[in-house]
Amino acid sequence: SSQRHGYCTLGEAFNRLDFSSAIQDIRRFNYVVKLLQLIAKSQLTSLSGAAQKNYFNILDKIVQKVMEDQYNPRLIKDLLQDLSSTLCILIRGVGKSVLVGNINIWICRLETILLWQQQLKNLQMNKQVNNGLTLSDLPLHMLNNILYRFSDGWDIITLGQVTPTLYMLSEDRQLWKKLCQYHFAEKQFCRHLIPSEKGHIDWKLMYFALQKYYPIKEQYGDTLHFCRHCSILFWK
Q1: Do residues 200 and 174 lie in contact, with contact meaning Cβ atoms separated by under 8 Å?
Q2: Are both 200 and 161 inside the same structural domain?
Q3: Each residue of 48-76: pLDDT tens digit?
Q4: How many domains does the chain have?
Q5: Pair (107, 172) in one structural domain
């Protein structure tokens, strides 16, 4: 479409793409948040003044959506932590780096981020009132099947805190071995073997150790693509 054509800079692309609508789509939400996190880590100063304003407007909508829907607050907490760290460095280094806009505006934005972080910290998850079948009522093989479908180790640990049964299943060596094999090549985890006290490989520790050395595969329901023929960014 014409609204996604003719990009010259990161800021222009960010302004033209409709991220406000994209965050309403559950398939695109995590992808957009991850994109904002990448910009926060290294490309914030590459955005124009208008793009930076748009960035914080979209971020505001994301935070409000998480507060209302309680969807994936941990992902947003990571984004805000990276953004606040970057802003602290940029504000301290005014004059040494390019920071578009008045310093007072950036201080206000940093204060807003701190407020968002506090709101997310105080977020209380609503308990679902349901007299029907619950997660605890499922047979062990179904609960185990659910755990094996997770691709993030922290999600497995979080689910394992729900009930003693899920904790037992989340500590299964075979589960963490499969997770290591999914994200990392054999030659990678052969370099960082971590034996347990009984002499077996501790695959859970292996997973988090390997995370520090190698980037893991990330999965998204929908992603942006670039057409080499007509130079258009588009959703898959």
Answers
A1: no
A2: yes
A3: 888 888 999 999 999 999 998 888 888 89
A4: 2
A5: no
- Report yes or no on 1 lying in a domain: no
The single-letter code of the amino acid at 70 is Q
Extract the tokens encoding 157.
């640990």
Side-chain half-sphere exposure of 79, counting CA atoms within 13 A? 28
Q: Locate tokens 């689910």: which residue?
A: 159
Q: Read off the tokens for 212.
A: 């520090």
Instruction: Render pLDDT for 141-170 as a digit per residue (tens, 0 to 9).
Output: 999 999 998 888 988 998 999 889 999 999
Co-location of 81 and 160 in the same domain: no
Residue 28, domain member (yes or no): yes
DSSP H or E stretch at residue 133: none
167 to 129, 164, 234: CA distances (angstroms) = 23, 5, 41
100: left (phi over 0), alpha (psi -120 to 50) or beta: beta
**Residue 232: in which H helix or E strand, if any?**
strand 232-235
Beta bridge partners of 226: 233
Mark whether 57 and 23 lie in a shared domain: yes
Q: Is the pTM of this model over 0.70?
A: no
Q: DSSP 3-state assignment of 227?
A: strand
State residue 84's pLDDT score: 92
Domain extent for 195 = 140-212
Q: Hey, what are 190's tokens?
A: 């052969």
